[in-house]
Amino acid sequence: xxxxxxxxxxxxxxxxxxxxxxxxxxxxxxxxxxxxxxxxxxxxxxxxxxxxxxxxxxxxxxxxxxxxxxxxxxxxxxxxxxxxxxxxxxxxxxxxxxxxxxxxxxxxxxxxxxxxxxxxxxxxxxxxxxxxxxxxxxxxxxxxxxxxxxxxxxxxxxxxxxxxxxxxxxxxxxxxxxxxxxxxxxxxxxxxxxxxxxxxxxxxxxxxxxxxxxxxxxxxxxxxxxxxxxxxxxxx
Length: 236
Known about the structure:
By secondary structure, the chain is an alpha+beta fold.
């Protein structure tokens, strides 16, 4: 397809093929004119930018998405991605926003152990070590882990302090509600089941209170799937 028109002074300008933008016309000595070279380079750059934008869109769509915590003044986020979910590289903002820093100067009035196990499609998902521990300062959150076996340390320096599973997942930066865990949502074929000491319970798992020597199991998968659920691990 050629482009042809008429100038304001009545003179017609020659037709231009779109391919001429990529293959600029040569001058009498066989070399492309400077303007044509620049025009060709600009066209090539435009093509590269368009391809790059399309690639970036694809990468963004396939990558983990995030959701800013409601009511948080810190730039902390929840992950709506697929497992496994690593420990956050910088947990400080989330712990601080939630008011969950442990007062290192005060004596502990509570130090409970809770076992958390997560299964997705029949496979165990590790609860990472060092959740709730700031690697830069060494400060501990009131809920934290030291190992990757699912043992939660729940501590407090104030009498009557209560903690929930939702607070742990906030520290972990993983989304948790009655109909999702991370990027896994419930639907007509998949469910998120909750067990405490072997007994299935209903409701929002983020509301479960963390009590000493209890085992909490979250099971995501096909509705008709079965997973052996321990009653308690009798942590010491």
